[in-house]
Amino acid sequence: MERSKDVCVVVAVLMLCSMMVNTASSMSMPEAENSNEELRGNLLANGLGLTPQMGYPVMTRALTKADRPIFFSLCEWGDLHPALWGFKVGNSWRTTNDISDNWNSMLSIIDLNEVYADLARPVVGMAPLLLGCDVRNLTKGTFNIISNKEVITVNQDSLGIQAKKVRMEGNSEIWAGPLSGNKVALVLLNRATVLHSITGNWDDIGIPENSVIEARDVWEHKTLKTRFVGNLTANVGPHSCKMFVLKPIA
Ligand SMILES: *[C@@H]1O[C@H](CO)[C@@H](O)[C@H](O)[C@H]1NC(C)=O
Ligand SMILES: *[C@@H]1O[C@H](CO)[C@@H](O)[C@H](O)[C@H]1NC(C)=O
Asked: Which residues form the signal peptide (predicted)?
């Protein structure tokens, strides 16, 4: 199951909500975050006596004075909900604690980030794809996954609207998001330890009910021969997922 797991890790990364939208000109002082006064007090009492929201803008201003573009990746582990203000000071922001290389960790990060899919939708696009490893030591399998151009194309789509979970039935989840050209990205995620047949219904994923759809499996690099109307059903292995790009053809 190694490969499936890796595939899903990449999908998780695609769906994470640490998002990037910024240009230097739009950077400004963020508004105070009132939702967690106690944590704020603790942060102030520590170290430099700065909350992230006080400290980051100072760095932001310094970086914008540099004579070259610098990617500013905020990391306060999601404590003060940077999904709500990070776009004003940085290019990306961590929304959670560290992820580790296992199924449970990956799913817990997806779950934690789900809340931001709606909150952040109006202001931000898709999660930046950041790679944190020694690139000299990538296995061929991992390299194939992270360099999958079809998957990266979904992430970089010009519409810039994140996918979100549209349905959950037991251990089966259906995630979907609109793409440019009336296409739709669909992910069928099986959290169970046994194979499940999972159905994505047009109703749930924002496709008009009579649309005829051509489906591209972007992990397998295959366009399915079947044309789909109303829904798409696939068998998804244990702790695994399938990802399709759906294109209306009639
Ligand atoms: C990664 O590869 C480099 C170069 O071959 C090597 O020096 C290094 O020890 C490797 N790191 C790990 C964690 O295997
Ligand atoms: C999928 O749609 C077809 C055609 O509308 C319908 O006959 C079938 O029952 C649907 N399948 C599921 C699993 O919803």
From this structure: 1-26
Q: From residue 229, how far is each of 13, 53, 173, 248 by CA, in Å?
A: 30, 49, 20, 10
Q: Which CATH architecture is the domain 3-18+120-248 placed in?
A: Sandwich (2.60)
Q: Model confidence over 163-198: pLDDT tens digits?
A: 889 999 999 999 999 999 999 999 999 999 999 999
134 CB less than 6 Å from ligand 1? yes
Task: Determine the Cα–Cα distance for residues 45 and 186; give it in Å rounded to an integer.
Answer: 46
pTM (two decimals): 0.78
Which ligand places an atom closest to the C-alpha of 213?
2
Rg (CA), the chain: 20
Q: Name the closest ligand to CA 202.
A: 2
pLDDT in tens, 107-151: 888 888 877 766 555 555 678 888 888 999 999 998 998 999 999
What DSSP line would sit under 185-222, residue for residue? EEEEEE-SSS-EEEEEEHHHHT--TT-EEEEEETTTTE
CB-based contact 110:14 (threshold 8 Å)? no
Output the CA 227–ligand 2 centroid distance in Å: 13
- Ligand 2 center–CA 245 separation, angstroms: 19
Q: Is the CB of 233 under 6 A from ligand 2?
A: yes
